[in-house]
Amino acid sequence: MKSKHLLQIFVLLAVLFSAVGNAQSVQAKPNAQAPDAVVIVRELTFWDATYTGYVDQARYEKWPFVLDATYEFSVTATPTSGDLAPLLILMDASGTELATNIGVLTSTQPAGNYFIQVEPEAGSGFYELMIRQVDSGGGGESASTEATPTSLTVGEAAVITVNLNNVPAAGYASAEFTCTYDPTLVAVSNIVVTNLFGADPATAIYDPQDGNFIVAIAGSNGQRATTSGPAFTFSATSLQVGQATINCSARVSFGDDGLTDIPSTGATLTINAIVVDGTLTGQVLASKPVTISLYNLDSSLATSVVANPDGPFSLTAPAGAYTVDATASGFLGAEGPAVITAGETSTKPTISLIAGDIDGNDVIDQYDAMTIGMSYNTATPDAADLNADGIINVLDLEILAANYRASGAQDWQ
User: Fold this and answer.
1) Which helix (H) or strand (E) holds 3?
2) Of the CATH numbers 1.10.1410.40, 3.40.50.2300, 1.10.1330.10, 1.20.120.450, which one belongs to the domain with range 356-411?
């Protein structure tokens, strides 16, 4: 007699703990799977509304609902008291079981009549139930593959990161990634799974071969990926020059015995040839410091160096064809071609710069002589001190006169 009264109290509580603002009908039915348990029929009528229920070993709850079109949806049962581990069972109107999971269940179903049955997988207690629509088309769920760096030389390695983006609130129970790449351009190694699916996830890796590999990750002990971020990383070592595309497509599971494809974007690695430097040496004579400059064929500066006081210089640059010139204050320059060979040293012939171009207009003339006169017995401008003795006088004029009317850069072959 007492047990009957207790059951009536539980039924009354089920009525009181219904969705906010809506009274729910309650109907007791026998449970075929557990004859001693009673199934209480509730009403589940709104997306995103919170309903409260109670189950134990003698009481299950059934929540009917109607879909007017095909929907992807998730049902979540969150325990609020006791030691309850709620088991969710999705059934159609005939009672055929469609999906089952503990705590969270996600499924896609066509228009029709369905119900969610809540049973205690373990324990008992109150729970909050919510059914929400999953907008699989507009939620932006995707997988992306990123490379760091995106440009490297043959033999270098990039870190490849594979991400899950816009993970829905219900989370993923597992994910399967199929990665493709050109094995003639890159070699894959060092696959490392992150904790996106919780601590100590279960992983299975189909090792790289013939340009593809598979990484499968499942959250252990009910853990799920509920936030966006890196799922795993690996190394891609470049093998030869080219453009290598790496893409990891993904299929995800909501824990309902199905896999859903999500969009994916790949990464491109630009692999450059190994650049081996060569050396250019020579000697340029002048009484002033000499700057040796190496120019690319498009006239951009590749590198430069100041020659030693007695003229020797050494330049290091990538193998290729260049133009080299030598300049000094108050002197006409020298210019010529230079070819640098990888791993080798090329030498330009020794050359002496011609003194007297004080104003730097590539001709030695009366205007340069006038500068000496205007600066006589001083030390400035430095370009007029042609013998670098610290004073501008007739000795500088004598040097200028020896080269009078010379013009243009010398041909430095």
Assistant:
1) helix 2-16
2) 1.10.1330.10
